[in-house]
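Class prep. Write one:
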Amino acid sequence: MVSIRKALAIAVLCIPLFADGSRADDLGVVASIKPVHALVAGVMGETGNPELLLTGAASPHAYQLRPSEARALARADLIVWVGEDLETFLVDPITNLGSEAMIITLRGVPGMHLLPNREGGVWEGDDHDEDHGNGHDDHDRHEAEGGHEEHDDHDGHAENDDHDENGDHDDHDHGEFDMHIWLDPENAGRIVDAVADALVRIDPDRAQTYRDNARMTRQRIESLHSDLAEQLSPVREQAFFVFHDAYQYFERTYGLNGRGTIVIDPSRAPAVRRIMALREALLEHDVRCVFSEPQFSPDLVHTVVEGTNVRIATLDPIGADIEPGPDAWFEIMQGLGDAVTECLGDV
């Protein structure tokens, strides 16, 4: 049976064009999540408005398509998503798509930096000091080639990947690689280039516009990256925990000292013994801040830090309260930088 990734690789080659090689003005473009949608919107500029599937605080792990969104997929000329390990709700609709839409699966874009999922809830062996500020460690980085990678002889998990450091069982199937790829500015630039290439092929009459928009968007990305590196430099050594492991790319890019997560699977509350172990880990690693997320209740975070001097703040990797549009990715990244700086900085 043809695998999902092979099917998507074939789908990418199905590029609908009119007989004269042009496209209508009402080009149908759909993006899965807000940060990706923002980068797509930046490339499109004034040529059109891409449709966003996930709005608000919805999680891509548990979302269900509405009929209107299913119709948008069916009539789309271009669909942009991260991949099956993140937007699980899109796997069946894309696999069974009846139209000849071009599909960009971002996890397979050539040159995309993919970091392996980290094991356990406390990262005792983190190579923070060795990889400080580098952003991309060749030892544990996968670089996508040819658009799609096959791992048919491996299920994407390390041998002990279904147990946390306290022996709690975790059935959460999160794949081999961390899919929060947009939190790396270099990856964001690769997304911009991939979208521009696709739009040029679909709509060659406006190729120069897409190229110009992509160039300006990449310049904005590089400028923000430089600003964030300077802003975050004073707090790089301060240890912190996050609610779940969604920020590895951001941490590696800016040399931050992430030490663990409150939960391994966001859909399951940790056992009491894990909560006690987490409280000990906060003290052991001299953790200054624990970050919650707007997609999940903060009650568990408050329980873990109760009775300690550890601060609480919020990180949002998908921009729940941010207005969709070409500025959203930049606001998400700046929001992460501001929250980290404020919570980890000196009082």
In short: The two ends are 58 Å apart (CA to CA). Confidence is low (pLDDT under 50) at residues 1-24, 125-140, 146-173.
